[in-house]
Design goal:
The structure is a single chain. This protein is of the alpha/beta class and 374 residues long. 18% of the residues lie in helices and 34% in strands. The radius of gyration is 22 Å and the shape is globular.
Length: 374
């Protein structure tokens, strides 16, 4: 039986049975779910998407999001999950649920996706740290399966070789698709025989990667591999994403071609705010959530709308506060705002008045928002 559950937006959940459970490292594991024939259409997904799981942790209901490592052509839902602490929710998920148990799983969502271009010659670079490999693994499997002309480069950072998840699967991909896929592992807390692979993935490491790995292009003697990069995928913690996204941008990749997925709450802007806005004081703010109307006043427009509403303890939906997850998507019904960055909304949604509250600065004295999209 399906259930509609509110998690920023009303989301459809279904009971699914755990078909496989594997401990990957000391603090990561995978879950695979059996999809009944009558739900296969509901669980079609794109590479890079995630599902939410509702489960009990210490007697309380918890809803967590987990990215799929499976590719769409595999026709299964496989998740990679990290246990952050011995008493945390994911630890309870690992300890208390086993093969044959049922969990409430949401229909797939998320926009860390790419348009498939099987007839084009493309170069795609992925940067992942730790559990951030999960959606990128889905992407890379899918691209290798569907795009015979696309070449891929993966730069994967971990604390140590013992923390490296999915190595066997990644190495198998590299062996079978070696002409189109190259993988490089980096360790921040384990010395390597080559110092190049020691340390975190950051702006300095990116410069070295461009100059020493992505330099000579066999397909075009007059340019480098980096010059040919079409899209960049980044997944990991917020600070890593911020650092690498800005470094890629400063090295010539357009922002619209830099795609990222956060694995934790992150309160900073990914890119620096380069615009200045006229000061507006005492902004009249009205908004609707789950049918209930709220009214307040924002002292000024110096801070973004979502952050000011959270300071006032209103129950506004959010996750990342960085314009990536889409939890705070709403409709601007009255007034004017400036949307600073947008990794989530489509052009059509923006044309219909959709905004992200976490990335919006008020530009008028009155603002009216509607968070009830469905």
């Amino acid at each position: 039986m399906e259930q509609q559950i509110y998690k920023g937006k009303l989301t459809q959940f279904h009971w699914l049975k755990i078909a496989k459970k594997v401990e990957l490292t000391k603090n990561t594991f995978s879950l695979e779910f059996k999809i009944p024939e009558n739900l296969k259409a509901n669980f079609r997904f794109e590479a890079g998407q995630f599902v939410s799981i509702k489960f009990k942790s210490h007697g309380e209901d918890v809803i967590n999001d987990y990215s799929m490592t499976s590719a769409p052509y595999e026709k299964k839902i496989s998740l990679g999950i990290k246990v952050n602490s011995p008493e945390g929710a994911t630890s309870q998920l690992f300890k208390n649920y086993n093969v044959g148990d049922e969990l409430l799983v949401s229909e797939p969502s998320g926009r860390f996706t790419l348009i498939s271009k099987p007839h084009e010659f493309r170069t795609i670079v992925g940067f992942a740290a730790g559990i951030g490999i999960t959606p990128i693994l889905s992407h890379f499997k899918n691209i290798l399966h569907n795009e015979p002309r696309t070449r891929l480069f993966l730069f994967f950072g971990n604390k140590s070789s013992q923390d490296l998840i999915y190595r066997e699967q990644l190495d198998d991909l590299a062996r079978t698709c070696g002409d189109r896929l190259q993988i490089f592992y980096f360790f921040s807390q384990e010395k390597t025989s080559n110092d190049f692979f020691y340390g975190r993935l950051d702006e300095k490491k990116l410069s070295l990667i461009i100059n020493q790995i992505l330099h000579l292009d066999d397909t075009d003697e007059e340019s480098t591999i980096w010059d040919a990069v079409d899209d960049v995928l980044i997944c990991g913690k917020g600070e890593m994403i911020k650092t690498l996204a800005n470094a890629c941008y400063h090295h010539g990749i357009l922002k619209k071609n830099i795609h990222f997925e956060l694995f934790e709450e992150f309160n900073d802007d990914i890119y620096p705010v380069e615009k200045e806005f006229p000061l507006i004081e005492n902004v009249e703010m009205t908004f609707k959530i789950l049918g209930q109307k709220y009214q307040t006043e924002l002292p000024t427009n110096k801070e973004k709308i979502l952050q000011q509403l959270l300071i006032q303890n209103f129950p506004v939906p959010y996750s990342c506060k960085s314009g990536i997850c889409g939890s705070c998507e709403c409709i601007l019904e009255e007034g004017e705002v400036e949307l600073l960055e947008n990794e989530y909304l489509t052009e059509k949604e923006e044309e219909k008045g959709h905004i992200l509250a976490c990335m919006s600065i008020a530009k008028s004295k009155k603002i009216k928002l509607n968070f009830d999209l469905s």
